[in-house]
């Protein structure tokens, strides 16, 4: 196992989990061994929030990313740049966050007059 690659991926995930636009975001990660490449992993990222209310109805917002396949954790890839997976993952997570926040905006934009939230930092 290439510990440099693993550490770089873990650092990106830690940064992503700490980056929030809303207090009550629920960021989760699903990880499974890759069925295709021995020693590598498939990851899928999830984000949800349910602290918004429109006309008294709770708005549930959930989104999942595309799969992320690691390519450098396996010992066979020690010659690879140890930051490649981390750079790819960082880009995927930035795009995922943008898509999630656009979905939040889309779901709450029609509720401007009746929007409420349990999130103390939203307004």
Walk me through the topology.
Blueprint: H1 3-18, E1 26-33, E2 41-54, E3 57-64, E4 68-69, H2 84-108, E5 115-117
Antiparallel strand pairs: 1-2, 2-3, 2-4, 2-5
Helix pairs in contact: 1-2
Secondary-structure class: alpha+beta
Strand content: 25-35%
State the total count of DSSP E strands: 5
Radius of gyration using CA atoms only: 18 Å
What does it look like?
The chain has 123 residues and is of the alpha+beta class. Helix content is 33%, strand content 28%. It contains two helices and five strands; from the N terminus they run αββββαβ. It has helices at residues 3-18, 84-108; strands spanning 26-33, 41-54, 57-64, 68-69, 115-117. Strands 1, 2, 3, 4 and 5 form a five-stranded antiparallel sheet that branches. A hairpin with a 2-residue loop joins strand 2 (41-54) and strand 3. The longest helix is centred in the last third of the chain and has 25 residues, at 84-108. The mean pLDDT is 87.
């Amino acid at each position: 196992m290439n510990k440099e690659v693993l550490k770089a991926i873990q650092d990106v995930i830690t940064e992503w989990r700490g980056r929030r636009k809303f207090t009550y975001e629920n960021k989760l990660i699903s990880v499974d061994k890759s069925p295709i490449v021995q020693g590598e992993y498939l990851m899928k990222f999830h984000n949800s929030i349910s602290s918004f209310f429109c006309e008294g109805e709770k708005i549930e917002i959930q989104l999942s990313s595309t799969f992320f396949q690691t390519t450098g954790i396996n010992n066979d890839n020690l010659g690879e740049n140890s930051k490649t997976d981390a750079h790819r993952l960082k880009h995927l997570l930035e795009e995922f966050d943008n898509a999630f926040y656009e979905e939040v905006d889309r779901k709450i934009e029609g509720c401007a007059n009746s929007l409420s939230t349990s999130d103390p930092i939203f307004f």
